[in-house]
């Protein structure tokens, strides 16, 4: 009987130890996947960001497009966080970051890039891969040119650096605004800030509209509709004209530094069509190229596929 009790006690301890170890593993995994919602001060502005993963893991800096925010990465962040330190800030005027008026802050891509640059330093990012999407491309390429030693890889999703990507019909009224910044020209662009236009950005070119969550425009549109935000977006429409003159610099950066690059591009995008993806092949030697059968916000329909491609790509590039 004593021997039986001893064996039973030993078995119970083993089971408890196993349960405790499993619980610890689960808690550790949960901790790595847990997304934290944080804010830091940059030049007096509150910059909101989402963060997950171990801080000693390789960092992936996610730079959002228009008219969204770090919200566009809400599913990608936990999908990468078990292996990577993932950080996604909101620019001033977007998401949950401060929204100073156009009289209080100069909304240019140069200034957005400066804020993001200071943000990376404030939160301690010394090396990172950059996810470049839409507005994130001119912000991210400015960072890359300024700090090439910090950039480990690039992940380009419908983010332009070549003239071929902005010579389509969508850009004609915006280019007119670059040339002539008048109230009349600006008012013609306000239709791009409506709920219908926001829905169109999320749904045009997708395979199945019923897979696109209305939580997307449900998040974005109320932020666009805040008093004063339309003026911010018009300022950035105009400032986008400062980007094409820098394309040659960004292309020179690609040729000189040859950052390993993953292209995951929604080929049905009416804003940044596939024509803007192909020219990267001219300048990059270490390039993985994927055109996806979806639209502008490719993560909404092909998020799982993109996360797998990113994990495979980073797994190869960051372990060399």
Concise summary:
The chain has 320 residues and is of the alpha/beta class. The protein contains twelve helices and eight strands.
Based on the model shown, name its key terms.
12 helices; 44% helix; 2 domains; alpha/beta; 320 residues; Rossmann fold
Task: Please write out the topology.
Elements: H1 2-33, E1 36-42, E2 45-52, E3 59-63, H2 76-80, E4 85-89, H3 109-122, E5 128-132, H4 136-146, E6 151-156, H5 172-179, H6 183-188, H7 195-203, H8 215-224, H9 229-239, H10 247-257, E7 261-266, H11 280-283, E8 287-292, H12 298-317
Parallel strand pairs: 3-4, 3-5, 5-6, 6-7, 7-8
Antiparallel strand pairs: 1-2, 2-4
Helix pairs in contact: 3-4, 7-8
Explain what the structure shows.
The protein is of the alpha/beta class. The protein folds into two domains: 1-33; 37-317, Alpha/Beta hydrolase fold, catalytic domain (Rossmann fold). 44% of the residues lie in helices and 15% in strands. The chain is built from twelve helices and eight strands. The protein has helices at 2-33, 76-80, 109-122, 136-146, 172-179, 183-188, 195-203, 215-224, 229-239, 247-257, 280-283, 298-317, and strands at 36-42, 45-52, 59-63, 85-89, 128-132, 151-156, 261-266, 287-292. The protein has an eight-stranded mixed beta sheet, sandwiched between helices. Strand 1 and strand 2 (45-52) form a beta hairpin. Helix 7 (195-203) runs antiparallel to helix 8 (215-224). The radius of gyration is 22 Å and the shape is globular. Residues 1-31 have low confidence and may be disordered. It holds the Pfam family Abhydrolase_1. Residues 58-302 form the AB hydrolase-1 domain.
């Amino acid at each position: 009987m004593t021997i039986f009790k001893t064996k039973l006690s030993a078995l119970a301890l083993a089971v408890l130890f196993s349960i405790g170890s499993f619980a610890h593993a689960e808690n550790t995994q949960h901790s790595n996947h847990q997304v934290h919602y944080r804010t830091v001060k940059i030049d007096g502005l509150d910059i909101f960001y989402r963060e997950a993963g171990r801080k000693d893991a390789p960092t992936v800096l996610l730079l959002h497009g228009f008219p969204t925010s770090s919200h566009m990465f809400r599913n990608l962040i936990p999908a990468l966080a078990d292996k990577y330190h993932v950080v996604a800030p909101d620019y001033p005027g977007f998401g949950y970051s401060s929204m100073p008026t156009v009289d209080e802050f100069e909304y240019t891509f140069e200034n957005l890039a400066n804020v993001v640059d200071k943000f990376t330093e404030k939160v301690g990012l010394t090396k990172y891969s950059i996810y470049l999407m839409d507005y994130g491309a001119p912000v991210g390429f400015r960072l890359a040119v300024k700090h090439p030693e910090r950039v480990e890889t690039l992940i380009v999703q419908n983010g332009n650096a070549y003239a071929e990507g902005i010579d389509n019909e969508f850009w004609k009224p915006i280019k007119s605004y670059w040339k002539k910044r008048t109230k009349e020209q600006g008012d013609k662009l306000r239709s791009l800030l409506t709920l219908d236009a926001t829905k169109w950005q999320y749904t045009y070119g997708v395979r199945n509209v019923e897979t696109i969550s209305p939580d997307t425009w449900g998040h974005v549109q109320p932020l666009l509709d805040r008093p004063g935000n339309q003026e911010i977006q018009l300022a950035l429409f105009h400032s986008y004209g400062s980007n094409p003159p820098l394309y040659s610099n960004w292309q020179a950066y690609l040729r000189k530094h040859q950052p390993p690059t993953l292209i995951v591009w929604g080929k049905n995008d009416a804003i940044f069509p596939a024509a803007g993806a192909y020219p990267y092949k001219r300048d990059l030697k270490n390039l993985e190229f994927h055109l996806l059968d979806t639209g502008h916000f490719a993560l909404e329909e092909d998020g799982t596929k993109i996360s797998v491609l990113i994990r495979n790509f980073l797994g190869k590039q960051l372990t060399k």
